[in-house]
Design brief:
Structural class: mainly alpha
Number of helices: 6
Strand content: under 5%
Shape: globular
Strand order of the largest sheet: 1-2
Number of strands: 2
Number of domains: 1
Helix content: over 70%
Largest sheet: 2 strands, antiparallel
Oligomer: single chain
Radius of gyration: 13 Å
Order of helices and strands: EEHHHHHH
Length: about 100
């Protein structure tokens, strides 16, 4: 995995980051710190935002009713990040992800 941290910018490759994001969301989706971490890493980072949105939308699709509220709160917290990519993030969330559609 290759990370470059300068001026609070985090660059990652799709294949490597998605595994770690999936692990974070699976293990600690109910923690407030998870939301804050995803918000921090998604700030001004469209690649990470897209991967995080895909994972959260996938969890919403396949989650049971008791877990649904938590995943919706994570989605809302990602969509409310006020940066230059907010509109694109909202658009991507409304369109859905092709990854989960193709997998079925």
């Amino acid at each position: 995995m290759r990370y470059k941290i300068s001026n609070t910018e985090l660059l990652c490759r799709s294949n490597n980051c998605s595994h770690y994001i999936k692990k974070i969301i699976d293990d600690a989706y109910a923690a407030d710190d998870t939301m804050l971490l995803l918000q921090f890493l998604s700030w001004e980072n469209p690649a990470f935002s897209q991967i995080a949105l895909s994972e959260v939308l996938g969890r919403i699709i396949y989650s049971y009713t008791p877990e649904l509220k938590t995943f919706l709160e994570i989605l809302i917290s990602l969509l409310r990040i006020e940066d230059s990519w907010q509109l694109q993030r909202i658009s991507n969330a409304l369109k859905g992800t092709t990854f989960y559609i193709e997998r079925e």
